[in-house]
């Protein structure tokens, strides 16, 4: 047995670029082993990955965990949201998965909104006004452009569903991840047959939506993984809902997550319906709600700007009047799927460090613009923002969020919060505890707090003005080859 006080569980984070696995002590929250393996994502017009890479990466990550994984009593998978996984009758991928940041389905998104009652009706019905990220639009795109793939599809899954099914042999999902598809109705908490009929998707192809806290199966002997027979499998969930579990998040606390994409969200006891489409009314993994706004361009885009400038990602310089909108993959918030990066205000004396700071500012501006919409009216807007994700430990990210928000910023010491949240969910099915309470017992949100400073209203106004003035350029479709 490992040097642990209690039983062990495994939490998995299958993200855009890699799969991570943590073996966690249920009693203390201590990570006793970890592993990670990469994925590849296509470039060009689409963003696709072969789902079989995720399974290979999971196996590699678990084998890196060694004996600790064999001692685990339960496992849960948190995963990137919205990805469309199409499987044939043998359970093999029909084609590579269409990922959340594939924006080719923007025309289908617009048509779906128009054809089924408009933005307000969609917000009331599913909690979310479809954009190119939402899974239903990707299915509509596939039906239009690859009808042979649709005909060959015997089941449709999300990324975390795919791995959970390979573990158990049973097709299940959870309310958190299902709420990001566009075909799950938040009001009834069931698949919406009218939406499914409209996009031509047979509900029999979809996984069963498991209840929070339900054991969805045990790891199959044929899975070829270092688990003991009888290892319990939890429902899993989407990455943001998993991170909310990993923080033990209570209603009203705002989170900014800085990863490949940027997200801002908070737990709410009220079902969100935003007809503007800025806030997605997602469900969480416990039974509450997770209103969330997402940007497509965050750490990856800013790092790309740093690479183009030939400087380190932390080499920012103050005093810039330049505006740089790093919309390198199109953008979701604001909803500009065809946009590309835009630079305004360049002068002879502009330095590379000032350009890089402008990229940070442009990325953070998009997230903060949705913050008030995400929070309930009675939330404390002077409370610290929780800063998580790959960029959260970067000084440039921390100081940019602090300066543009005017709020204190807390950086949890715990790493890999998606995997930790999945581990807390696995602990919950093992012990019967609320997984958020498990995470609070582990004290995962503990970390230093950066004091609030004066909000940089001038920078916020300048960026907003450029976005408004440049709207025709940002909305113009460009060649993405």
UniProtKB/TrEMBL annotation:
It comes from the Bacteria. It comes from Streptomyces apricus. This is Xylulose kinase. Substrate binds at residues 81-82. The record marks 13 as: Important for activity. NCBIfam families: XylB (TIGR01312). Belongs to the FGGY kinase family. Residues 9-246 form the Carbohydrate kinase FGGY N-terminal domain. GO terms for molecular function: ATP binding; D-xylulokinase activity.
């Amino acid at each position: 047995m490992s040097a642990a006080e209690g039983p062990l569980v495994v939490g998995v984070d299958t993200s855009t670029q890699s799969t991570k696995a943590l073996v966690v002590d249920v009693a203390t929250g201590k990570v006793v082993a970890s592993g990670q393996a990469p994925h590849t994502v296509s470039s060009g017009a689409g963003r696709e990955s072969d789902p079989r890479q995720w399974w290979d990466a999971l196996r590699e990550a678990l084998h890196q965990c060694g004996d600790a994984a064999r001692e685990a009593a339960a496992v849960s998978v948190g995963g990137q949201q919205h990805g469309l996984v199409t499987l044939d009758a043998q359970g093999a991928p029909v084609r590579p998965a269409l990922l959340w940041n594939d924006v080719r389905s923007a025309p289908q998104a617009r048509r779906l909104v128009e054809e089924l009652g408009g933005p307000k009706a969609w917000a009331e019905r599913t909690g979310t006004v479809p954009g190119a990220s939402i899974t239903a639009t990707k299915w509509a795109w596939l039906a239009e452009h690859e009808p042979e793939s649709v005909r060959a599809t015997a089941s449709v899954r999300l990324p975390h569903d795919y791995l959970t099914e390979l573990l158990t042999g049973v097709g299940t999902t959870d309310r958190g991840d299902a709420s990001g598809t566009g075909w799950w109705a938040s009001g009834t908490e069931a698949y919406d047959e009218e939406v499914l009929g409209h996009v031509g998707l047979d509900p029999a192809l979809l996984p069963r939506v498991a209840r929070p806290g339900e054991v969805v199966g045990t790891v199959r002997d044929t899975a070829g993984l270092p688990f003991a027979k009888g290892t319990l499998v939890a429902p899993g969930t989407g990455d943001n809902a998993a991170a909310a579990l990993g923080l033990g998040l209570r209603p009203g606390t705002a989170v900014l997550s800085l990863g490949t994409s940027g997200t801002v969200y908070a737990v709410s006891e009220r079902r969100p319906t935003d007809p503007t489409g800025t806030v997605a009314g997602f469900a969480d993994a416990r039974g509450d709600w997770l209103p969330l706004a997402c940007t497509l361009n965050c750490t990856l885009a800013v790092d790309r700007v740093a690479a183009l400038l030939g400087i380190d990602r932390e080499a920012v310089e103050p005093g810039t009047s330049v505006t740089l909108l790093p919309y390198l993959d199109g953008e979701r918030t604001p909803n500009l799927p065809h946009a590309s990066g835009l630079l305004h205000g360049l002068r002879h004396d502009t330095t590379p460090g000032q350009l890089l700071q402008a990229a940070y500012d442009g990325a953070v501006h998009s997230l903060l613009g949705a913050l008030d919409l995400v929070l309930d009216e009675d939330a404390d807007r002077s409370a610290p923002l929780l800063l998580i994700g790959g960029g959260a430990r970067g000084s440039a990210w921390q100081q940019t969020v602090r300066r543009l928000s005017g709020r204190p910023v807390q950086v949890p010491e715990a790493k890999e919060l998606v995997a930790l949240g999945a581990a807390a969910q696995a602990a919950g099915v093992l012990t019967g505890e609320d997984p958020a309470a498990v995470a609070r017992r582990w004290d995962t949100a503990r970390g230093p707090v950066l004091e609030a400073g004066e909000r940089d209203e001038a920078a916020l106004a300048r960026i907003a003005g450029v976005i408004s003035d440049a709207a025709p350029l940002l909305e113009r479709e460009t060649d993405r080859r």
